[in-house]
Write a structure and sequence with these properties.
The complex is a heterodimer of chains A (201) and B (154). Chain A starts with a helix and ends in a 16-residue tail after the last helix. By secondary structure, chain A is mainly α. In chain A, α2 packs antiparallel against α3, α2 crosses α4 and α8 crosses α10. Chain B has 8 helices and no strands. The radius of gyration of chain B is 36 Å and the shape is elongated. In chain B, α7 packs antiparallel against α8. Chain B is mainly alpha-helical and 154 residues long. The two termini of chain B are 60 Å apart. In chain B, 56% of the residues lie in helices and 0% in strands. The chains are: A mainly alpha (201), B mainly alpha (154). Chains A and B meet through α2, α3, α7 and α10 of A and α1, α2, α3 and α4 of B.
């Protein structure tokens, strides 16, 4: 059982400080996963809140069957799926097909929640769309999700498969296609040999 | 989806040796607004009666309550007030006897007829699609046995 699962068990038994520790650890990766997956700041904020709300609501039934990150991001995956079903226009790459990377920002839907519809918030979101993030945003939904799960959480391919409810080979294939497309869209890149290994928290 | 890419590309990426990962790491890392932090943490601190009831500490009590209710239900079925029957034959046997050709109403006077058997005859009439006769018989039955508790299936 990992440390995060122990924290979740403590929270299940009433220790709110354990939840605060979990929240501090995962709020960044979860928020970025949602933001870059749904590509909409307002929707990401809503989903972020929904994920934690579901976690709070299901704490009494929590059993550490898998890594906590897998559990948390499986909840997030389900929330995102529900979101895409509610608004298929935001679902995939079709909305940005045929656009240059520099145009992806303008293709993104504006936030829907009033608080995040303020022009400064929209501008702040669009400013974050570097060439890499724009290329990530242009990936098909499933490939984008696999890449973001890997990058934000360091989950293994097997864990990504579990989070997204697909066979391992499917998850592997999605990830492979994602990195292939991202590499093609980004050049020149550093030589891998010159880089240290990346580690995850 | 066909998988025609060289495996070392993915392996290199999964080892964390890919330039892609390092480039992603250098991207801005937005965090949730503080208002969201406050909202989530406040919700996590609130006692929730619904989830409190599902606390594992209450599980033995919930189990005991469900066992008690189950036993009480079984006892009520076995020893509780039952519908009067003239014989102990299984009802299903009586049904089989009338399956092909349900009999017409018996000639005996209403008070002399066995109420359980009478109800079976009415059921057989209904199953045979003779609803009008069944209704007539039921009216006779009710006038003959006004106090008789008719099972729901009748």
């Amino acid at each position: 059982m990992d440390d995060d699962a122990r924290l979740m068990l403590r929270y299940r038994d009433g220790d709110v400080t354990a939840f605060c520790a979990l929240y501090a650890r995962y709020k960044g990766p979860l928020y970025r996963y949602l933001l870059r997956h749904v590509r909409n700041a307002g929707a990401a904020a809503d989903l972020f809140q929904e994920v934690w709300s579901r976690l709070v609501a299901m704490r009494a039934r929590y059993e550490p069957r898998a890594k906590f990150a897998t559990f948390l991001f499986h909840v997030a995956h389900n929330c995102a799926i529900d979101f895409f079903r509610r608004d298929p226009n935001l679902r995939g790459v079709t909305a940005t097909h045929g656009l240059e990377p520099s145009e992806f920002g303008t293709a993104l839907r504006e936030p829907e929640v009033p608080e995040y519809q303020r022009p400064d918030k929209v501008a702040e979101f669009l400013e974050q769309q570097s060439a890499l993030l724009a290329a990530v945003a242009a990936l098909p939904q499933e490939q984008r999700e696999a890449f973001l799960l890997r990058e934000e959480t360091g989950l293994t391919v097997e864990e990504i498969a579990r989070v997204t409810d697909v066979p391992v080979e499917t998850a592997k294939s999605r990830l492979r296609y994602a990195i292939r497309k991202l590499k093609k869209s980004l050049s020149p890149m550093q030589e891998p040999d010159a880089l240290p290994l990346r580690t995850y928290a | 989806m066909p998988d025609d890419h060289p495996s070392d590309e993915l392996d290199e990426y999964l080892r964390g040796a890919s330039a892609l990962s390092h480039q992603y790491l250098r991207e801005p890392a937005p965090m949730p607004p503080q208002a969201l932090d406050r909202s989530v943490l406040a919700a996590a601190s609130l006692p929730d009666s619904r989830t409190t009831l599902k606390s594992p500490r209450l599980a033995p009590l919930a189990f005991a309550a469900s066992v008690f209710l189950s036993v009480a239900l079984v006892l009520a079925i076995v020893f509780g007030p039952a519908v009067k029957r003239a014989d102990d034959k299984p009802r299903v046997m009586q049904v089989r006897a009338y399956k092909t050709d349900p009999p017409r109403a018996a000639a005996a006077s209403p008070r002399e007829r066995n109420p359980a058997a009478w109800l079976e005859e009415i059921s057989a009439l209904r199953r045979a699609g003779r609803d009008r006769e069944a209704e007539n018989e039921m009216r006779r039955f009710r006038s003959a046995y006004p106090q008789y508790i008719i099972p729901v299936s009748e």
